[in-house]
User: What shape does this take?
Amino acid sequence: MHHTKDKKLFFILSFSMGLVVIASNYLVQFPVRFYNLENLLTYGAFSYPITFLITDLANRAFGKNKARHIVLVGFFIGIILTLFVSTNFNDVISIRIAIGSATAFFVAQNLDINIFDKLRKKIWFIAPMTSSIIGSVIDTFLFFSIAFYGTDIPWFTLALGDLTVKLVVALIMLVPFRMFISRINDFNDLKFKDFNY
Assistant: This one.
């Protein structure tokens, strides 16, 4: 029963990761056209921080090695489907968005996993908050520089706007993180109790 529940959680987190990556890669192409924010913000900033929530929950439940597997599954689902859903291969920017997204996601999520793992024994919010903030900064500047550097798109101001929203959403994500961790077993506790895990 315990392992069936683990498998179910693993698949839910992997599938969710892929879904959020696809949505974010699609939404990042659309600037927010309210309150003069079109040069500051894209809709991708609202959905992308959920990836850090998923990674941190995976890390808490399964440890850093399985969390990496979930990132890889999400990476392949997300990137492959993004190529089919929103990449226009006749458009250099569209190709750069795909490459930027893949690179930024992979680097930032793995960084998030390592930071979270080092801080996992501290007060519950320290690990997800620190890893998500640092991951968001790295992810944002990697993505926007790869996708838009050298174009007439104001990538730096867009990156700053996206990052601001991502940081706010990352802090809001602490609420569901707290709710979910009370319902999942902590890998750190389990590995000492269950040697077959």
